[in-house]
Specification:
Riboflavin synthase; mainly beta; transferase; Lumazine-bd; riboflavin synthase activity; Riboflavin_synthase-like_b-brl
Length: 218
């Protein structure tokens, strides 16, 4: 699990391209201080396994499912990537709970400065939009951010100067793609309240607004 607090911006050093797979070698320092083979590191919000490492680089394999479901295949030599080690049980929880399992890829439609903040509007598939709420949490390229606006097909986020400087999102422009992870707690709640039927439809939960009011939740 991760918190969405980026520890370091790494640099992509080498890529071995397969038909629908990748081998990435990322240059870094901080996240490699206590690294071991098999460790999990979030790379632009994607949970990847360390397959080899030195004091300055780490290697990762990207399988076809991850290749298709994320923006990692768009990386180029020299690209910056957000890096975060898996959280420790006794550490501070600064962001929100993130699994490193990407739910969709969004497209930035606008980037606007307002005072000391940068506002981004991101277009998303409806399947992802259904889980977003105003002032809720969202993971964007592995960074924990707050939702400041929810449209029919877009979500709005805002970056403070610190996030602009210490996250690759600060370099993104309109047209760029970003990995999106929705709040895992929201997914569990929706799954609990709305059960998926075998035919692909939905069966409404017995927990309704009337049920909650009748049992003291007002």
């Amino acid at each position: 699990m991760f918190t969405g607090i980026v520890e370091e911006i790494g640099t992509l050093k080498r890529i071995k391209q397969g038909s629908e797979s990748l081998e990435l070698v990322v240059g870094a320092e901080k996240v490699l201080e206590d690294v071991h083979l098999g460790d999990s590191i979030s790379v632009n919000g994607v949970c990847l396994t360390v397959t080899d490492f030195s004091s300055k680089e780490a290697s990762f394999d990207v399988m076809p499912e991850t290749y298709r479901a994320t923006n990692l295949h768009e990386l180029r030599i020299g690209s910056g990537v957000n890096l975060e080690r898996a959280m420790q049980a006794g550490g501070r929880f600064g962001g929100h709970m993130m699994s490193g399992h990407v739910d969709g890829v969004g497209v930035i439609t606008s980037r606007k400065a307002a005072s000391n903040a940068i506002y981004y509007e991101i277009a998303l598939d409806k399947e992802v939009m259904d889980y977003l709420v105003y002032k809720g949490s969202i993971g964007v390229d592995g960074t924990s951010l707050t939702v400041f606006g929810v449209g029919d097909q877009t979500v709005t986020i805002s970056l403070i100067p610190h996030t602009v400087e210490y996250s690759v999102i600060g370099t993104k422009q309109a047209g760029d793609k970003v990995n999106i992870e929705i709040d895992i707690l929201g997914k569990y709640v929706v799954n609990f309240l709305t059960k998926q039927s075998g035919q692909g439809g939905t069966t409404q939960s017995a927990i309704t607004t009337s049920f909650l009011e009748e049992n003291g939740f007002k």
